[in-house]
Design goal:
By secondary structure, this protein is of the alpha/beta class. The protein has 2 domains: about 200 residues, 3-Layer(aba) Sandwich (Rossmann fold), CATH 3.40.50; about 55 residues, no CATH class. The chain has a 9-stranded mixed beta sheet, sandwiched between helices. The N and C termini lie far apart (about 55 Å).
Length: about 280
């Protein structure tokens, strides 16, 4: 990585309403607006990496003029440059990511939080990596860069069951981090005062390309089972068949098969249990 290549941090500024209703032109309550703890952790990590690598931090956000409050907080904490993409707060994630990628074309490391305060889908980092055609690693709990070569990021990702995945990510790359990774430092008073009048680059963006409904993130639900209609002329008999009441409990089966035969056995079992048609 070049010594002059900046580290970028993407901050998602989210307005809020006390009543939870839709946001109108003057409906946002700035007292409850801000960025997520994950974004704050990304900013702190960007500042730490910049100190180690001898480079600068560029903070960027997409939103209306009110989003500049988050950028001024980033400048007070130690960022050297702030950029605001002039976009609506409800802009599609794909459009936001495209504009971010255009503005961060020279960044060696792009850091993001793994969730925001609104929908929390965490899709923007992946879209940014796609548009820049660079490596990505999402949901990280630890990041380190070898200062000798500054060519690879060593990261740890949380997996299910208490496991961890160790990654070696080539630069340039896009990384998203969890909020528990770092706590944002307290801004010194001189920088906090200077940030109030600091210059912020405002970039005009073209009209949105995507006009579909925003992605809705819901909890995982297993696939519904396809079961035959219950037989029996008496209602009680049909209920017993639906609930398996009064039947002997089934026991597990242990089989030793070659991989192709084992895969076929699993498919047959799923079909027998009603998970496959």
């Amino acid at each position: 990585m070049s010594a002059t290549a900046p580290i970028a941090v993407c901050l998602k500024w989210t307005p809020a309403r006390l009543d939870g209703g839709p946001l109108g032109p003057d409906a946002a309550d700035d007292r409850f607006a801000g960025i997520s703890p994950a974004d704050r952790a990304a900013l702190e990590l960007a500042l730490r990496l910049a100190d180690r690598l001898g480079t600068t931090v560029t903070a960027i956000t997409a939103g209306p003029a009110g989003a500049e409050r988050a950028l001024r907080d980033a400048l007070a904490a130690g960022a050297e440059r702030a950029v605001r993409l002039d976009m609506a707060t409800d802009a599609d994630s794909r459009d936001v990511a495209f504009e971010l990628a255009q503005s961060l074309a020279d960044a060696a490391i792009v850091l993001c939080g793994d969730y925001s305060l609104d929908r929390g889908s965490g899709s923007v980092p992946a879209f940014v990596a796609h548009h820049r055609r660079i490596a990505q690693a999402l949901g990280l709990v630890d990041i380190d860069v070898d200062t000798a070569t500054a060519a690879t990021v060593h990261a740890t990702r949380r997996l299910d069951g208490g496991r961890r995945e160790l990654l070696a990510i080539p630069l340039p790359c896009v990384l998203s981090v969890e909020g528990s990774l770092a706590t944002l430092r307290r801004a010194p008073l001189p920088r906090a005062l200077a940030s109030r009048s600091a210059h912020i680059d405002v970039v005009a963006t073209p009209p949105a390309h995507h006009h579909g409904a925003p992605a809705i993130v819901t909890a995982y639900r297993p696939r519904a089972r396809v079961m035959p209609a219950p037989a029996g002329e008496v209602v009680l008999d049909r209920l017993r068949r639906l609930t398996d009441a009064g039947t002997a409990p089934s026991r597990g089966e242990t089989v030793v098969l070659e991989p192709p035969a084992a895969a076929a056995r699993i498919v047959d079992a799923l079909r027998e249990w009603g998970y496959l048609p």
